[in-house]
Amino acid sequence: MENLCGNPSFSLLLFLSLHLLVVSSLYHRFSPVDNYLINCGSSDEVTVDGNNRKFMGDSVKSDSVMMCGTRTISIRDSNPDLGLSPIYHTARVFTKPSKYEFEIRDKGTHAVRIHFHQLNSAKYDVSDALFHVSVNGFLVLSNFTGYDNENARIKEYLIWVDAEKLVIEFIPSKRSKFAFVNAIEVISAPKDLIADTAQFVNGDSVENFDGLTKQALEVVYRVNVGGPKVTPFNDSLWRTWVPDEEFLKFSEGSSRVYTSGRIRYQMGGASREVCPDNVYNSARVISSSNATVPNHNITWGFDVVEGYKYLVRMHFCDIASIAIGLIYFNVHVDGHLVYKDMDLSYITNEVLSSPFYADFVVDGDSSGVLTVSVGPSSKSFPYAVDAILNGVEIMKLNNSMGSLDGEVSVEQVLKNWPRGNIGVSVALFASVCLLLTASLLMHRRRVGVKDSVAWSPLPMDISKGNLKSNNQFSCGKVECS
To answer: Distance from the CA of 113 to the CA of which of 226, 330, 428, 467 falls in 20 to 30 A?
Structure first.
């Protein structure tokens, strides 16, 4: 197989793209400039995650968050599960297209999390919901139900914002359906979270993929390889990382390792915001316990959708070697060799337990499965660690329609939304006027009336403001109810 990464120019490019590590960085808790936590359908402020994150009720006036909608309704669970986060005890229901607008002070990538969960309400059965959701012009959900019998559904996106506002719109699929949401998070991301350039795996070659930050990204998988579930309480960006067991396709001869030692983050490399300690301090490895180097890989498989590109981020941190210079291995993405003879000691400037990550973009193909693998190389040593992986993230990129969910755009969705009854009423009223006028004219002719009949047609320049005066439309500081 062709060595995609062995030539000097590619090695230098990858060396730079992996953010090589030079100076130790000081630990600090990330504090986002934009940090909107909305408890939808409520006027209450609630605290979640056990780390003092406060979600503000969307019925409370705010100078930074605005809700615009027609006839929005707040509902509350009549029999709430007290073991469930309080943000899932209420919801906001939309029977017509409605939106939230968030004032943006820190332009750049923002994490957007939208929360959905079933609740018991006499007003609405959420299992009947069917709707679309857009974020800043990207269609992120299409004909979505938001329904799950047991678990909350959290949809997470990374969206570039270079305007003064970020807009999230909820659009019922048709008049007989409705949309709902339990909670929303809008958080400005660290500047190093998404690099603008990744490596595009195109068959047996690798080339630059530029403009990544301007894409809409949906977080599909976030996996802690070899370790337990990581909850938002243990992640500085309040993310969830799941164990890797359900994704393992081949793991013969592998083992899990863990360290309680310090992860040595270095300036310019992976930060705690990119990936937390609780992911880097565990891993799955291939090791040789004798003079023979194993001849197999560890492989993980992930379900994907054909027709979309995916960002594959692989996290590495050598927590298993007893000394530097002892680990070399190969990395494969979707069956293609993307890094041959990876030398973690070289990449991390000969510092053990020092993390970095590599970004690759691949096409989702007809197989519907995306694979990543690590395994020994021709330079691997006996009696040593011969492959390691600490974490994997897989994110879907928007397609040419600006959609993350189907071949449809926001413009098409809004165009297909049924027009309001007001337009029909105006047309009907005008028709009635014409019929009455015609009837009067015919009556005049029959009875020979010579007097003129005064009549003025319905004006066609009625302002939208007048038309909506009876449509219960409101647009203000999260006051719709």
So the answer is: 226
